[in-house]
Design brief:
Chain lengths: ~450, ~350
Amino acid sequence: MKKFKPFLTVSLTLLLALILVLTSCNGESTTVTATVTTSSTSTTTTASPVTLYIGGTFALTGAYAEDCAAVLAGFQDYAKYVNDNHIIAPWYTDKTIPSNITFEVLWGDDQLAPDKALTIYDDLKSQGMLVERITGSPEGLALKDRLNEDRIGATSQSTSPSYLSPPQTIFTNAPIYTDQMAAAAEWFLEQWIAAGHTEKPRVAYLTADSSLGRGIDIPEMQAYLEELGYEFVGSQFVPMVPTTPPTTQLLWLKDNNVNLTLGCMINPGSQPTIKEAVRLGMGPDLEYEITFVFANPSHLQVFVPAMGELGNGVVVTGDFVALDADVPGVDFANMLQDEYRPDNKISHVMYLDGIIEAMTQIEALRLAMLQKPADQLTALDVLEYGFYQIEDFNVGNITISNLTYGPGDVEGVDMVRIQQVQDGVIVEVGSYPLRHIYKHE
Amino acid sequence: MSLPSGIFQESYGQDMAILRTKQQWIWLLIFLAVLFTMPLYSSDKIMTLATMMGISVISVLGLNILTGYCGQISLGHAGFMAVGGYVSAMLTANLGWPFWAALPCAGLAAGLVGILFGLPSLKIKGFYLIMATVAAQFIVIWLILQFRGFTGGTDGLAVPRPELFGYVIKTKGAYFLLVMIIACLATFFAKNLVRTRVGRAFIAIRDNDLAAEVMGVNLLSYKLLAFFIGCVYAGVAGSLLVHYFAFADINMFPFGDSVWYLAMLIVGGMGSTTGAIFGVITLKLLDEAMILAGPALAAAFPAIAAQAAASLSLIMRGLVIVIFLIFEPRGLVHRWELIKAYFKRWPFSV
């Protein structure tokens, strides 16, 4: 054994050195190409069938589960529509998809965990997916540099300010949270002045205790509010999914005479918060006058059916149109549900997000296919010839403005929609331009 | 450990060796050869998964020293990882330190924070100590969020990748090797630690702290030492994690991970180095299998909503822990020992 040990040590060291050398020689970048479904027996002159993948990671368990389930359904139905009709939308009959192209949705449940998102991303990439999607800020923060290194464009249902530091390859279809809050502050100030108040309104953050919620708590946001004429009071944080009513936080607002709260919460957070606020007599029309503003991903389309008139006065910014709005996008969504899930319809507004994200991914792939054959596409092609070329892209008027992306321009829309609950219905009360609060290098 | 017939130890050194037969050395060599050649034939996904397993192994080995050997249950291990991760991130990103200097500092910082939160362990134990360590998790994350100027707050912090003699360890294969080398060293240290005077003191405290004290074991210093060593492991794992993502963010260290690390110990077998490794591999593979099963199930049974199919992962993890607690409380390592014993006596085993 004594003679064996040195031999073993030397062999292991040599082996390690060899592996290190071999690994370092291993190429650093991975080129992702489309999957070709070979048809060697084909005798016709038609192009070979090619399957292109869309989708990405979805947090189907955890706080975003309901939202993501609706988004995934939107992806799946939209992919079926494009495969059946070979156009990207009824209002874009000129944007056609070659008949040899089939789209397939690939997905994995990342449970809102960065490490899981990473393994799913690697898995999807290895299967030849040329695009990606991001559920929430945790996965976005973890993947954004990797996506940029791999030059893969990704759509996202989250709009974290950090996607702008610097703008890379995650493209949003809603305004960044801080821009949503800036718009709400402008809107409220107009109401405040119109009501004849002369004193400065007092504003505080009432926001989720997470990356999502704390994303607005940055010096630039506070500076902007003070510049507008607000007196900034402080911040209160509520768990993403509160297990007890946030009474302490709400009473703190009362004690500090706050007139307006700004925050990012999901519906499982904003709904119990408002229920408790109403119980404490806090609201625009209640004994303690205060207006609560939440950024998208709170959705009045979910909030109103659950809360009714209890939620009167609550404001949500940056969201899609109401589900009963008379716009082509909503009609299209209804048509997809009638066609592909007549017995299992989705009532969640994030179904619209699924359609928009899938439409954006397919448009990027379609634009790239105009430059290169589908079976030769790389992720870089889809990013440069696809995502970066998307300009004035109409998603059926679901978003406040058409989507435009480019290098350094990842915030697709250029306006913020403001909706308020009035008498138990959603009313659009205004729209404001992006103020680009979050300054990036 | 029993030896095959005909092999006798002739010295104390031989008797104390971890590997005592040529066969064991050969198996180790084969294992290491397979492990370290993985980058040559494995996909990106396998590399990512194996790297994450390696990082978890380091962390769980630390928890095993603290909980498995010394009996100090901690539910704040992800918080201690966050300390290491952020110290390493700040030193490399803000001060320009090399990774190799930041890595030991990360371990040291986590160890010192571990000592701080371990101080109550002399007075409290069991459920009360669990609550104190849970507090550690939340206090650490809260502090990270408050010192936004240094830590990046909710925006996180971009972290440079490690460099070795000018070569940036950027590829998945190269990073895997780095993690595995550290994981092997961590395993070697952990395995040896429990055979020392310190390790025996840890075990004595775990089995009966009063008796240990009567025997002359200084409870406070040994408990704090266990916290220190366990948290050094966590700090190193945290550092490796943030450098792997090239980004430090509080979401990488959720409370749930602290619980799962403990679950890995339960499944693998508490108080065993091999058990810690078994636990990590089993639960990580189970996780991956469930992630893959979600879309497959949803496609095979369209009546099952995708959301329900995906929830299977959480259900399965909970189920596995319950099953282990009921049917195999000593963990997979116990089963492994039984299997080995069976084949050692084969064909006479019953």
